[in-house]
Amino acid sequence: MPTGSILVADDDAAIRTVLNQALSRAGYEVRSCGNAATLWRWVSQGDGDLVITDVVMPDENAFDLLPRIKKVRPELPVIVMSAQNTFMTAIRASEKGAYEYLPKPFDLKELISIVGRALSEPKKPENALRTLGEDADNIPLVGRSPAMQDIYRVLARLMQTDLTVMIAGESGTGKELVARALHDYGKRRNGPFVAINMAAIPRDLIESELFGHEKGAFTGANARSAGRFEQAESGTLFLDEIGDMPMEAQTRLLRVLQQGEYTTVGGRTPIKTDVRIVAATNKDLRILIQQGLFREDLFFRLNVVPLRLPPLRERTEDVPDLARHFFLQAEREGLPRKQIDAAALDRLKRYRWPGNVRELENLIRRLAALYPQEVITGSIIEAELSTPVATNAPEETGQDETLSSSVERHLNTYFGGFGENLPPPGLYHRILKDVEYPLLSAALAATRGNQIKAAELLGLNRNTLRKKIRDLDIQIIRTSR
Q1: Each residue of 430-468: b (16+ CB within 10 Å) or e?
Q2: What CATH code is carried by the domain that includes residue 177?
Q3: Domain check: are 192 and 245 in the same one?
Q4: How many alpha carbons fall within 13 Å on the CB side of residue 435?
Q5: Which end of the chain has less neighbouring CB within 10 Å, N or C?
Q6: pLDDT tens by residue, 10-29
């Protein structure tokens, strides 16, 4: 049976009663109060083995009380509860030395589990984190849904670590924003944050982009160039769309992560590196591993702390907060002030949001810029969301769709997903790569893996075809007729 004395502080008598009953049934001695003054008196007298407190108290905010508690009793674990449920609430709880943050309402079984873990762990003082500025609430991580609360709590625990993080999520869910939050509020905040999009760089330039090159290393290398690892020294390197990294570059990256050093392209002297790696992908890397397109050992090196960002359709309760946030941003940038009525918000919540938060942000900016009405109504939203976009199927013309029209349709949809923004640079090479792989695969399949026949079919030199098979890592299956 667990033992320990727990101090509960919450000005809501009903919550105190529920907590008293649950903790008592779990075998703990419980004392509760409704104000910070009583809690402080008990703590300063040496009472209690653990504290559970709400943030907002009638006489003092718990975030103001926490530093005093940690000063007189640094080993005392404090669990903070809050109905505010924002990203910055979780960060401030961690910043002030809280053992854990729980958004209201919370699961009592989870609370009992956290209490047991806190009381069983060796007691050690928490390192104080930095105090955030008054503008900290401007951080663009918005949402109070249970899915986002889980993310906030994980991020709060990661802020004072250098653990490698793998962020997975669909395009437009905010993966780079999360990576920036990890950097801006973490221990490397005084260092640089360097982002690189693997899908936007030609294959033959990726190693130079990551590790830099020496003068004369290749044609056009007229001067030494620092790579992203060097630029991110003592800071954070964000590897976006890591699933698009070529296999040869994956091998070099793995070596760097294992050995903590790298050499520039054309260089001979190893260079020590001190960066935190945060990677992101919108693909299922385990499927890529099965297809032979991603190294399993690199995956385990990067996937130390996996973090999945939910698509907006899985947290539609956050849509109103996000819409108001983006309207406020648009107003700060000089666009007219807008309000949005309940019918409009309800229509936004019922939309599927294939482009996720990015699509919502683009819609809000469009509404702020193009509509003269001060209040955005449901009919306006209905008209916007019903506007036909590039169709996902060929038109019923009675004729088969050509490759050219199919590619054009795909590109229209692709560009539409970015709204008023442009896709990342390197589109030409990405499109060629996307077309080349299925073309070569189809030719090899048609010739039953016979490379001589496939080269003849494609009109390529046999050595050129072999090189492309190797570069694209195409799996050849030979069968007999």
Answers
A1: beebeeeeeebbebbeebeeebeebbeebebeeeebeeb
A2: 3.40.50.300
A3: yes
A4: 13
A5: C
A6: 999 999 999 999 999 999 99
